[in-house]
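Why do we care about 3D structure at all? Because function follows from shape, and shape follows, mostly, from sequence. That is the central idea of this module. The next example makes it concrete: a single protein chain, its amino acid sequence, and then its structure expressed as tokens.
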Amino acid sequence: MIKKIQGEIRFFNEMPRDMRILLMTNMIYALVLPIIEIFVSAYIMRSLNSSSAVILYQITVFTGIPITFVLNGFLLRKFSVKGLYSLGMILSGISISVMMFLKDITFVEVGISGLLMGISYGFFWSNRDFLAIETTEDNNRNYYYGLETFFYTITGIAVPAVIGFLFVLTSSYNLFDGDATAVYRVITIAVFLLTVLSSIVIHRGSFKNPKVDRIIYFRFDKLWRKLLVLASLKGMTQGYLVTVPAILILRLVGDESTLSSVQSISGIVTAIVLYVLGRISKPQHRIYIFSLGYVIFFVGALTHSLLFSSFGVIVFVMCKVLYQPLHDIAYFPIQMKVINYLSELTKRSEFSYIVNHEFGLYVGRFLGLSLFIVLDYYISESFAIRYSLVVIGIIQMLSIPLAKTIIQESKHEKA
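And the structure:
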């Protein structure tokens, strides 16, 4: 076993240096993501007892992201990609602090905090996507995303478990005088320290800024338009995955400790599967991994809709934890291969495609959340959280044949 681990470490060290530094940065920041994606929504639900407030938060987050992608393109002409990447990570810690250290929060504070988080995500993801393209090649991207999502899954186990334990101590043993808000504030301090550490690590790399001349285009190749549709379908699910699980858990199951336990237990098998897939799978296996992820999501959504109980929610959250990394390990290499191919074909900068892709995601996120809002407003919240997920799951199945077509058309890329 020890020799196997040593062999994996040697394999990691054989990767390009900048790729390893980017991975190490993202591994540290991975400790922050479960808090941002799950417990911020739970905090809003606890404070305002309103799913509308959670939706408002996510809409402002999603609105801030594409705007910042464009802004980041202009800033890259004068500032270091490492500095802007660091700024994104640190801003996420500031955003959480703005919300959780206020004595009382209203919809206004929720919206401001969400917009600030969206800006931080915009700086983080736009620079991360560019650096991932620049530091990897098609033949090592399965490994890159397999290892990255492996650590995201591990932190998805460890972080919720630790936070859940703190909530148990608070409620059962009067830790922090039984004040759950104090737990959130301790978490916020930890988040801020981790964002500073990850910012320090990224500066060890020798990354070069992209050449950014024109950022926004309105006419694209047919292949890119297909990828934008695929991005929109992804965005529909993405909007739900950072919003609905916390609402489901707190409405149908229990409190934050339950949320933590479900996240942790369902991630154990996923972490092992992801690392193995990333290590041994080849580019031709991506469509199978991609399809498996969407089938698992649909099964979880259908189970939740049919049962509409605490058990159904637990099944869905477990399927969601399996789906998300399986999808990412296949989707991101597909996206990058298309960007590489079209950037060479059209002589446009890779960054302009990264920016445009984000707008495709935004359209999907907006449509997905709009579906929830319409069902909530015109029928009921109960109906929305019961049936909207299965509708999304059915629509997502269209992604499988579309992804297969995109993979086939992008095989013309020069070796």
